[in-house]
Amino acid sequence: MPVDNDAPLSDAELTAVLRELASDAPMEELYRRHRSAVLSYARTCCRDPHTAEDLVSEAFARTLQAVRSGGGPEAAWRPYLLTVVRRIAAEWMGTARRTELSADFERWLSNLPDTSQSESGEERILRLEDNSLVLRAFRSLPERWQAVLWHTAVEDEPASKVAALLGVGASGVGSLASRAREGLREAYLAAHLERTSISEECRRYSSLLGAAVRRTGRRPNQDLERHLAQCARCRHALVELTDLNERLGSTLPAGVLLWGGSAYAAARMTEAGASAAGAATAPSTPDGGAFLDGGTGWWVRATGSPLRSGAVAGGALTAIGIAVLILPVPFDDDKGSSPSQAESKPTLTLVEHPPPVTLTPTPSQPTPSDQAKPSAQASGTPSTETTDTQQPRLGTVTWSGTLRNTGITTQCVEPAGTTVVQNLCNGSKDQVWQSVSFKDNKDYSRLRNAATGECIDYRVGTQKVYDNAAHIQITMGPCRTDGDGQLFRFDPWWGESDGSYLVRAELEDGKPWDEMQLGMLDWWEGNDPPPETDAPVVLTYNYYNAPRLRYRREGV
To answer: Is 461 helix (H, G, I), strand (E, B) or coil?
Structure first.
């Protein structure tokens, strides 16, 4: 096979030269390759762009020192540098530079579970790293596998670019990534078994966890099902394994970075989109944003609101091309903002429920108003909804009660015609919701109102921008058997022990509601007070971990 002498050196080859020679040229090339990504992440930790630049410089300086001392990365420079950024930021928590860190990063590090006041920021980070099975599994892999997983799944870079970083042919990237994915699953199971408190029964069922993930759609092993019903650790392991298998692009940064993983991944995705667009200007929209993907997506303006940031920032990107998400604290630079979104890992928790009740719809006669409504066929809009005289058999009610907002504890969710709002909690049937199971995915359920018999629906909603934050208008509509656009899962909030939940929409790549959740339209506590009556409830992102974007389930 002929050797291409003009091919750029891989990261591992540059590292070898850096260790052998006194020249700084290899480091300059590595800096060029990784600086933009490292700066994207540093901005999630800092209050302003200048501090983020300092954090990046120190991260590269420490990594260079480690490499020349015989340590540091070889092929997996990107995840190593991002880890160094997080650790330096944690160190700053105990110094005068603490005031330069973002308020959200400071709050996240201060409120980690099981944290004692005597622990330093570095000690807290090291403990958190040790507790992350995803991180331990990832670090146990060969560095080439770490690098190919990160650059393909997280950065979503083309095979030609990944090949150059790894020193392989573009055609070999896919097979290398496939082997690395399988290796990550096996390493995760090994890390799960290394837990000192794991029982012998858990060890016996560990191999079945991997098989359950690979053989999705097949009849589950009943012995494993019984074990999972009793073992929270193995349930959690199965959830993370499933996420590694199906949603590696979001699960890997969350598990490896621990802080700001979703914000970083979204920023890098947007940055890649901006690079691909080149100098082309997207067509303008009425609200000053720009269309993506032929008008199916959106970009939020980076200026013009008190936060000067949005879920995804477009239009005029900053000089260094950093994508902008809702920030913990706005930067002083009018062009820059720092993506910050503390992670909320999917967890599976058994909750005390009342005995399941099978829903048996009672047919009713159509009213004159129903007869006057135009049919879906007449309007030209396809529909899977059923009529009142032929309602579907849905599932079982696994919970029934009110949804009380965590940020405004006097308000509960209720329908208002075709919309969903919050009003003063009054114990009425309008504020009673039922979690109705979905047979195709037991992790999700519909949210059905006890008074109207209709479900919360987000399928027909489109993403809009309000105060530079993205949201989808939700409606009340007939419950559908396919569950499309009506499924939710309750993720326990991992921060404060307030018993609240993130009420998340269905995770589905390519859908506008992917990674969104129920919350108040007026979620930002720094704005004017929300309406005292009929405060709108929408689907939105977990901005700032705002309390108004979480709910407490109160059973009846």
So the answer is: coil
